[in-house]
Design a protein that fits this description.
CATH class of the largest domain: Alpha Beta
Order of helices and strands: HHHEEEHEHE
Strand content: 15-25%
Oligomer: single chain
Number of helices: 5
Shape: elongated
Largest sheet: 5 strands, mixed
Number of strands: 5
Helix content: 40-55%
CATH architecture of the largest domain: 2-Layer Sandwich
Strand order of the largest sheet: 3-2-1-4-5
Distance between the termini: 90 Å
Radius of gyration: 31 Å
């Protein structure tokens, strides 16, 4: 008789699930996704908006960024081409860039066969000349 009473008590009791750990894990996943989500607008949206606002403000024609081509030269010396003028050292490139408008920025386009130090020298020359926006792009094949 005691055994039957014990079995009936066990059957009436419903199993309890520990929800505390599941709630903790759900909260941690939610926090992870919130903190790692990108809060910034895409860069393409920012460019288009800046171009539209400067146009509305009565500004002059939109300026294109300066392009510095970094190409391999004779004897392992890199050639920095700014427009049609070629420079072979960083100081002359810095002087040439210092005379240009800084608002549109500089794009350093690196061709095949150029060592990383020469690409970095071109980017540093742009920074030394006072440019804030300096971008690096590889040359198209």
């Amino acid at each position: 008789m005691k055994f039957a009473a014990h079995v009936s008590r066990v059957r009436r009791r419903s199993p309890m699930l520990g929800l505390t750990s599941m709630i903790d894990a759900t909260f941690l996943l939610l926090a992870y996704f919130i903190f790692t989500a990108g809060m910034d607008r895409p860069e393409s949206d920012l460019r288009a908006r800046a171009a539209t606002e400067s146009h509305r403000a009565g500004g002059a024609a939109l300026l294109e960024p300066q392009v510095v081509d970094v190409m391999p030269g004779a004897g392992g010396v890199a050639v920095f081409r700014l427009g049609v003028v070629a420079h072979t050292d960083r100081s002359s490139l810095t002087k040439a860039l210092a005379s240009l408008p800084r608002d549109p920025g500089v794009v350093v386009r690196v061709h095949d066969g150029v060592v990383v130090a020469d690409a970095a020298a071109a980017m540093q020359a742009a920074r030394d000349a006072g440019f804030v926006e300096v971008s690096y792009v590889p040359a198209k094949q």
